[in-house]
Amino acid sequence: MSERRRVEVGKPAPDFHRTAVVDGRFKEVSLSSYTDANHWLLLILFPKAWSFICPTEIKAFSARLEEFLYSRSCAVVFASTDSEHCLKAWNGTSEMEGGLGGIHVPLISDCDHKMSKDYGVLVEEEGVAQRALFIVDPKGIVRCVTVNDADVGRSVDEAQRVLDALVFKDEFGEGCPVDWKRGDKGISTATNLEGKLELKKSWSEWARPKLQRAWSGTSQRSINSVMSANINAGYRSGPEPPMSPLGNFGGASAMGSPYHSAYHSTMASGQNSPMVLGESFHNIDEAMLAQKMENMQSAMQN
Fold it and tell me: Is the pTM of this model over 0.90?
């Protein structure tokens, strides 16, 4: 099997310029010749001429060719890795002798395997194409890909059903449910939105997680160093600091002491936080302020 990836749905179909047998004559055909005419294209690859399953498919599609051309603006072509001379001889041979008996569907020769490789369906070990079907829209975009087992033929009715569904979807913008057929109703596939998501946060809601991060972990060490510097500055020429626990820092025994002055100065200035809050400091709720005071006291004790 070729290592090349098969052409995917929604991707541009590779263009081709090939020799084809059309009504017993050799003619050049290309993908662009169909898309330029605003036609859909049913490109059907088959393993080999003079076989068993392939002629049943080709004759069935040929018998209903008008349903594709005139009712759906869709061309149908078959292609194999056989030479153009082989395909011409096969088409010109009667059905009783194993031939096609003169069908009207173009038979494309891909004897150099380029087309089969471009579409990713070449079985390199055998030198033949897989039993693959591609539906290409008038813009040259692949809209359907099916690959059957070599011994299982395709259905004309199913090919028409899928083609009709694709045309319906393009025209009306609706999806086609299971077993949808031409004339049936479609299903809306649009998602109804009920407005946009609105995020509204107060200043405290926005600042709270940032403050919590700023007052935790390594920030406490920074706070401790700031407090130590302020306290040491207050005692540089003063008496020894009191030996009372800092847990009573706000009590009467500490009021008026250099410790209290340093603590109050640090809190008021906003230097105790990596986020310098300034005037916005007073907008924090009481619970947040109480937590900060507790963190400050813990830092000083350390």
Answer: no
**154-199 tens-digit pLDDT:** 999 999 999 999 999 999 999 999 999 999 999 998 888 888 877 6
**113 in a domain, yes or no?**
yes
State the catalytic residue, choosing from 54, 74, 86, 176. 54
The parent domain of residue 62 ranges over 17-154
**Residues 91, 103: contact at Cβ < 8 Å?**
yes
Catalytic: 86?
A: no
Q: How far apart are CA 285 and CA 302, in angstroms?
A: 26
Please give the DSSP secondary-structure letter assigned to residue 146.
E
Continuous H helices in the chain:
31-35, 53-63, 65-72, 84-92, 114-118, 156-172, 203-214, 218-234, 258-269, 286-301
> Is 57 within a domain?
yes
The answer to whether residue 176 is domain-embedded is no
Contact yes or no for 45/79 (Cβ under 8 A): yes
DSSP 8-45: PTTSBPPP-EEEEEETTEEEEEEHHHHHTTT-EEEEEE
Give the tens place of pLDDT for each residue, 15-64: 999 999 999 999 999 999 999 999 999 999 999 999 999 999 999 999 99
Q: From CA 146, how far away is CA 106, in angstroms rounded?
A: 20
In this structure, are 209 and 134 located in the same domain? no
**Burial classification of residue 203, based on how many CB atoms lie within 10 Å of its CB (0-12 exposed, 13-18 middle, 19 or more buried):** exposed
| Buried b or exposed e, range 224-261, using 16+ CB within 10 angstroms | bebbeebbeebeeeeeeeeeeebeebeeeebeebbbbe
- Does some domain include residue 273? yes
Here the CATH number for the domain that contains residue 58 is: 3.40.30.10
